[in-house]
Amino acid sequence: MAGATNADIKRVLSIQSHVVHGYVGNKVATYPLQLLGFDVDPLNSVQFSNHTGYKTFKGPVSNEKELATIFEGLEENELLPLYSHLLTGYIGNPLFLRQVGHILKKLRQANPGLVYVCDPVMGDNGQLYVPKELLPVYRDEIIPLADIITPNQFEVELLTEKEVRSEAAVWEAMEWFHHRGIKTVVISSSDLGQPGVLRAFLSQQNGPRLAIDIPKQGGKDLVFTGTGDLFASLFLAHSHGSKDIANVFEKTIASLQAVIKRTVASLPSGGNGPVKAAERELKLVQSKTEIEQPQVLLKAQRLN
Fold first, then answer.
1. Main-chain dihedrals φ then ψ at residue 300, nearest 5 degrees
2. The pTM is what?
3. 288 close to 240: Cβ distance less than 8 angstroms
4. Secondary structure of 104-150 in the HEC alphabet?
5. E strand or H helix that includes residue 171
6. Does domain 11-262+281-303 sit in CATH 3.40.1190.20?
7. 183, 137, 117, 127: which is closest to 157 by C-alpha?
8. Each residue of 258-267: pLDDT tens digit?
9. Which end of the chain is more exposed for a tag (fewer CB within 10 A), N or C?
């Protein structure tokens, strides 16, 4: 790697879930990253038939020993300096998560400029979908190692142990993360907007505080799986080498909203009647152009 700079390296080690059918975890993160010029090496925390929102799902959950063995192969082949980023998403086992901490330290030894984007996938809408034992591992061991973190509103409450029900509480929570050394904190969605509007927030340590209002799409009960995973991968891609964090935030939301819009348009009832899990799968491949060339329609407001 003689002569290569961090700006030249664009390779992501992405540790998250894999599904055979549909788009969540590594399946939803890999394609956008590749379209935006990154090599992606997916390392799967689980291998399921489909995401857990279906009536049934089958498949193995990987353990920390398997993770360590796979990573050892990368290390012994001297591949670690090739990574510019680590991206983590759904992990269902506290020991596996702890092993991610060891992996990150080794990646940083090989490339001190490596950027860690952590999506602490734990739950949504008040519901935890990982064992509660993951929470202290995230809070005490993993979060302080991250450069960029992209939790949802519920995950922020879990980590900070404080309710986030007002905008003042959002900025207090952001400071909790900054205090632990995290440079960029993005809350990918919250219900703190006007009725029918989601509000996303971003705070940079000693930098701007931003918010974007996002009109909800489809019927009120329509929920998409994999949007947070997609958000984290897009944000990673756009933030690489960019000094304009507002533009990064806007482009990420623009592509995400375009994918959702296309998905809603494809629904048999236009999203207003009952929808099967398979019909709600994100129309990712069909949104290639919107991922490569985001059309920014929703602008970030600067709040400080």
1. -80, 140
2. 0.96
3. no
4. HHHHHHHCCCCEEEECCCCEECCEECCCCCHHHHHHHHHHHHCCEEC
5. helix 167-179
6. yes
7. 127
8. 999 999 999 9
9. C
